[in-house]
Amino acid sequence: CRNLTLLRSIVDERLEVFSADTIGIRDHALESVGSRIVHGKGLTAGEYSPDLRTNFLAWLDWKLSPARPAEAVIDSDTTIGNCWACEPSNCNVTIELHRPLIPTDVSVDHIPEKIALHMSSAPRDFHVWGLRRHPSFAGDEQDQELLGTFRYDIHQGKPVQTFPLHVKKESPLSRLKFQFTSNHGHANYTCVYRVRIHGKEWEDPIRSEIQD
Amino acid sequence: CRNLTLLRSIVDERLEVFSADTIGIRDHALESVGSRIVHGKGLTAGEYSPDLRTNFLAWLDWKLSPARPAEAVIDSDTTIGNCWACEPSNCNVTIELHRPLIPTDVSVDHIPEKIALHMSSAPRDFHVWGLRRHPSFAGDEQDQELLGTFRYDIHQGKPVQTFPLHVKKESPLSRLKFQFTSNHGHANYTCVYRVRIHGKEWEDPIRSEIQD
Amino acid sequence: CRNLTLLRSIVDERLEVFSADTIGIRDHALESVGSRIVHGKGLTAGEYSPDLRTNFLAWLDWKLSPARPAEAVIDSDTTIGNCWACEPSNCNVTIELHRPLIPTDVSVDHIPEKIALHMSSAPRDFHVWGLRRHPSFAGDEQDQELLGTFRYDIHQGKPVQTFPLHVKKESPLSRLKFQFTSNHGHANYTCVYRVRIHGKEWEDPIRSEIQD
Ligand SMILES: [K+]
Ligand SMILES: [K+]
Ligand SMILES: [K+]
Nearest by CB to B16, which of C79, C116, C157? Predict the structure, then answer.
């Protein structure tokens, strides 16, 4: 680098990505773009709640605390504490996208190790499922297809980790489920700060023609 | 650059500006410093609202959505969705400054293209007006002076764009109006994330003497 | 620097620290990790309030403004205006930590000079006290030990300034008090944006054994 101008432009290029939601990739899961959490058995479930019978004080503390709803995982604010606490081996969250998409990648956010009180509650292993709503959809039953199995790594020093899906879809999906099956050692709960869904918008050839 | 120390200092210098509200320039328009939106015909007007008669569903959706008031444009939070939606060719927002100022520049913020769902709703052409409140001020009538005509460019990759005013004022102003007359192609609305007003504080020689 | 890869890694290393709460050091004072402000005479006191008798308009303005409670100082949001306003020479804030700690450093945040309307209300001289709650604790009385006397410097260009405590504790503390005794010239109030407490978690050898 012979001159400072080049240097400054490299810094600014990095800052540009950083200021674009840290990783510079569009996130379609955000509640603020119109997506939402779908509640229901097998869809979004496993919210942590201490057992009233075995630990009354922990339960009371939990009931009085500003515990976040599952919607926290599609809120871009990841300051400390802004996570959804769920059961370590049984933590499911399903997102209905603001519009059908061809998903290509997902991301998981946790707070940086440098400032976390502990990293044991960070998510570790998880599956991503594509859900299909049948015309005969009744209650919580729907087909699900495994799009990939991944691991969030707390030792690589990147708070936001992006994973390309193993299955390349050709038709769009409306619902994706994240199923977290383990954490990094915390006995009581996993704290999910944020999940992101990246992909391509899908133009329905028939609908496009009608609208034009 | 012979050593890493120089390199780190250049990075830190850039970060210092970035962490100072992205551009490192004082913004006097912020509601949090005491400025406010002035409502009224010709002042702040053109809020987007789908037509109930032609599109009942869009209208219903709009009424139920967390639509932002015009005050969003003087709130520093520019995460996605935190904008004021107004009519593409008729979008006016007037700010009463926390104290009279000699304005020198204005800025317009939009979200980075990398993360936006689309850029068509970004503002394009706009005028900035200085308003003068007459002693005989009645209702919405007041003198206005054109301070500059500008274009927000979505292709230059800078989410915050700063424009020096064409008219250099010698006496202070209390109210500035932004009039957005076009966007980048969206048929229904323009989304204004943030406007900023930069300038010099003006010391009234008479008042200063009294206070000293 | 023979190659751009090294350059980018240096930038990213700086960004990693920056994105970890600006300084990359764990803060135990945050309300979001479970710490809280302890109110009471000699603990948290000195909130600014204009005198109703001498300045009715200032008082009215104050009552109508979104004045922040003392809890603002343990909230990580330091956008402009998000501070606690207190009396210049009598500004005390006491934090009860989420768990007892061996404190090693404290930090004080203010907004960057580049964007502040003025820097005169920034805190200047302050003491940090460790408080001890006696079993015979009654009302507001408790022992306090001076852990250090520091000065926040508005001319060094660093909004977040970290100070190593002068006294190295060997046993943990639950409460720390910040006592601000001067500011940078503002006649009416000091604005405290944020205080941080850094330290080591303390493992009680007896309790640890029981839990294992
Ligand atoms: K979150
Ligand atoms: K905004
Ligand atoms: K604060």
Answer: C157
Instruction: List, for residues B180-200, the tens digit of each pLDDT value.
Output: 999 999 998 999 999 999 999
Neighbours of chain A (3+ CB pairs under 8 A): B, C
CA A110-A114-A118 angle, to 5 degrees, is 65
Q: How many CA atoms lie within 13 A of C156 on its CB side?
A: 10
Looking at the complex, report in whole angstroms how far the Cα of residue A206 sits from the nearest Cα belonging to chain C. 45
How far is C80 from A147, CA to CA, in rounded Å? Answer: 44
The model's pLDDT over A92-141, given as tens digits with 9 standing for 90+, comes to: 999 999 999 999 999 999 999 999 998 999 999 999 999 986 655 555 55
Total-model pTM: 0.89
B116 and A26: CB-CB below 8 Å? yes
Instruction: Please give, one letter per residue, the 3-state secondary structure of C3-29.
Output: CHHHHHHHHHHHHHHHHCCCCCCCCCC
The H or E element containing residue C197 is strand C194-201
**Smallest CA–CA separation between C110 and chain B, in Å?**
11
Interface of B with C in 68-87 (CB under 8 A): 76-77
pLDDT value of position A208: 46
Give pLDDT tens digits for C70-103: 999 999 999 999 999 999 998 999 999 999 999 9
Pair B192, B144: CB distance under 8 Å? no
B97 to chain A, closest Cα gap in Å:
28
Chains interfacing with C (3 or more CB pairs < 8 Å): A, B
Helix axis angle, A4-19 to B4-19, nearest 10°: 40
What token pair was written down for B50? 């789908």
Are C26 and A116 an interchain contact pair (Cβ–Cβ within 8 Å)? yes
For helices C4-19 and A4-19, what crossing angle results, to 10°?
Answer: 40
| Residue contact C20–A114, C-beta within 8 A | yes
